[in-house]
Each structure stands twice: as C-alpha cells, then as structure tokens.
Amino acid sequence: MVFLLLPFALSTTAHADGGFPIIGVLHNGRAPEALAVDTQTHMLYIAYESPGLIVGFDPISGTVRWHTPLNNVATDVQVDSNSHRVYASAVSYQNGHSNLYVLDGSSGKVLATMDSGSGDNSIALDSPHHIVYTSSEDQDTIYKYTFQSGWQSGPIQIQTSQFTVGPRPDALGVNSRLERLYVADSATNTVTVIDENNGRTLATISVGAMPLPPLRVDEANNRVYVVCSTGQELDVIDGNTNKVIARPPVAPYPEGVAFNTATGQIYVADEGSEEGSRKPDSGTTVTVIDGQTFDVLGNLQIGRGPDGVESDPSLHRVYIAAEDSNTVTEITDSTDLPLTSHNLARQIIAAGQTISFLQQAAIVTLIAMFLTIVGAALGALLPHWRAREIPQTPPTVASSRLERHSPPR
C-alpha cells in the first residue's frame, strides 16, 4: 500500500518501500516525535517538532486527513479511542510556555487550550475517569485536568489542579483500572506510584538512568514499561509488586517503546543520541524484544534517529518516527522480521561513535599543526623584522668622523 496524501499547503511526499516488512514511508514535516493510534478508527496521530504540528493520518485509505499547527514545538500526543479526542502538548520558543490542546480526532479542530507550565511536557490519559495529566519538568509540577463535561462531546469544562512529585518529573503513565499514576523522574532515576484518589505515594521504584517519555502501562498484564535512555535498557515493572522484573538491554539512548502488538513483541526505538545533545551520531535501529521472556530478538534497520513508536494490533502494524530522517515508517508486525544481531547493532553504533570521535580528533590535530606551522614561521621571520627596524649609521658620516679624529702627520 502506498501512502497517499491529500493536497494542502505544506510540502509533503510519500512512497512505498516495497520490501518486507516496510509497508510505506510518510514525509509530512520535520522531526516527527510522538505517535498515537486510535485502535477503533485506526487513525495515526503524529506530533512534529519542527514546526509544531499535529497530523491525522488514515492508514486504511493512505491519506493525510488533516494537519493542525500548534506552538513552535509539539512534544507529545495521545488519543482516547472511545471519545476519539486527541490531546497534544506544545511549547513556544519565545518564552518556553507550554499548552495542552484538545483536538477533534476526525477534523483536527482545536476544541480547548489549557496552560501546562513550561518546558517539554508529556501526557497521560485516564480515559474512564476523564482525567488528563501533564508533566512540567521545568517547574517540577504535575498538572491534573479533570473534565467536568465535554469529554465525549458538548461544551468542555475542566477543573485544573497541580501537585509536586520529585525534582524533575518527566514521563507519565496511568493504570485506570487500579487508579494509579506513574511518574518517572529523570533527576532521581525513580518511578513514583501514586494513588489517584487521595494522592498518596504507594511506592518509589529505582530504575535505570534517565527515564524518558513515553512511559507505557499494560493494564491487562499489570506491567509498566520504562525507557531508560542513559541506562540503555528497558525496565519492566510488575504493577502488583512494584518491582523491576526485567531489564533487557537495548542500543544506546532509546527514546520510544510500543508493547501492544499482535505478535506480543516489544519494539524499542534506538534514538542513538543522549537527551539534549546535538545528535552527532543518530541510531538507525529498533530493538525487538520477546514480550513474554523479555529476551532481545534482534534489531531492525529503520532510519536515522528513531524516536516515537506505536502499534495497531488489529492491523498488525507498527509505526516508527525517525526524527533525523523526517519520516514515519509503517512496518508489518511479524515474527519473521529480518532482524540483525543485537550485539552487532550495538557494535555498529559504537563504531559510528568511534569514527566521529576520530574525525573530531583529526580536526583538532590539523588545527594544532596549522598553529604550530604559523608559530614557527613567525618565530623565524621575527628576528629579520626586528633587524630592519634598528637604525643604521650612514657610511659617509662614519668616514668623516674618522678623518676628524686622525692624528696629524
């Protein structure tokens, strides 16, 4: 199936790769970040960082239904598959101010806008209880939006409250069945479990270094999946015991995970660069993990800087946002994926980083050699320049002086 696009002002291109397991590749903006799938309508929603843009893509017809610009940078997107409302966060370059937006999933129309602090915010939905949470890591604050009306349709009325959990709350997740909120803190490398009803802390769980959004909650199996970027692992938490039960290793600096797949496989995007860096070395793979044993099955080559990952189990499809390639790739969720060795993929990334370091060292060496040559040349020429500046006595004056002081004969 080829991705087709409806005509609109934004320049877009799309094509089908034609080779298993890639179904199609969508070009619709710069730096795609987060993804969300409505499991009933099968609509895919994409948050683009540059410009801040939310796109509604219909994979059944292969068409982009709509695109809605928000602030300068869109940081997260979630969807409620019952009400078909889309929730997106975006931040402004000018003042760092962030907002939470409610959009109609079929048209992209903005239905409501709420303040959500500052910085890059992530979102968690408690759909049965009509609650939305956002994290404001720069303010050390969690925003809670309780819908008094308008969750499904009609005028939207929201009660907003705030509370603090740790010094740098980042990733959020909700188990609405147990009424628990999970908050990953990237400063303390912990996940805090909170009772939604009374705000009481039920547990604090140590996880790998730098837990990042998205934090995924599997309500059916009561598991929590935490992507630990600097720790280079996926931490799996048992929601019954609040203990980490597995830490499968992934390629450097992962930033996305999807678990709800038809095959039971877990997909982790190997973004390949440390959070906040200028990304000199992007990853190119997605790590595939067995959802039962948590064994690493291998890696799938995708594109530069894979970030967001989402799945549609009914369609047997997985979507990967390759941030540095400006693409969203649609693949078949299959047990027969052409995977490479997990260790080989790590070696390839490590080799790429080594090459980058060597290139930087070579540049520094060349600069040092140039400065040395220039310094040596200046050192050789300086005495000559100084000699030219010293005044010399004219020969005629010297001879006349000798004649005047000669004794008489």
Considering the chains and any ligands shown, give keywords for the structure.
5-stranded antiparallel β-sheet, Methylamine Dehydrogenase, Chain H, disordered C terminus, mainly beta, 409 residues, globular, 45% strand
Walk me through what this model shows:
By secondary structure, the chain is mainly β. It folds into two domains: 13-343, 7 Propeller (Methylamine Dehydrogenase, Chain H); 355-404. Helices cover 14% and strands 45% of the residues. It contains two helices and 29 strands. It has helices at 342-389, 395-404; strands at 13-15, 22-27, 30-37, 44-50, 53-58, 63-69, 73-79, 85-91, 97-104, 110-118, 123-126, 131-136, 141-149, 157-163, 169-175, 180-185, 190-195, 201-206, 211-218, 223-228, 233-238, 243-246, 256-258, 265-270, 285-290, 296-301, 306-312, 317-322, 327-332. Strands 1-2-29-28-27 form a five-stranded antiparallel beta sheet, with no helix packed on it. The protein is globular. The N and C termini lie far apart (120 Å).
Low-confidence stretches: 1-14, 347-358, 392-409
Gyration radius (Cα, Å) is 30 Å
> Tally the helices: what do you get?
2
Q: How many discrete domains?
A: 2
| Main β sheet profile | 5 strands, antiparallel
What integer is the average pLDDT?
A: 85
What is the CATH homologous superfamily assignment of the largest domain?
Answer: YVTN repeat-like/Quinoprotein amine dehydrogenase
Shape: globular
CATH architecture of the largest domain: 7 Propeller
Number of strands: 29
Q: Level of helix content? A: 10-25%
Indicate the proportion of strand residues.
Answer: 35-45%
* Major β-sheet strand ordering: 1-2-29-28-27
Distance between the termini: 120 Å
Question: By helix and strand content, what is the structural category?
Answer: mainly beta
CATH class label of the largest domain: Mainly Beta
CATH topology of the largest domain: Methylamine Dehydrogenase, Chain H
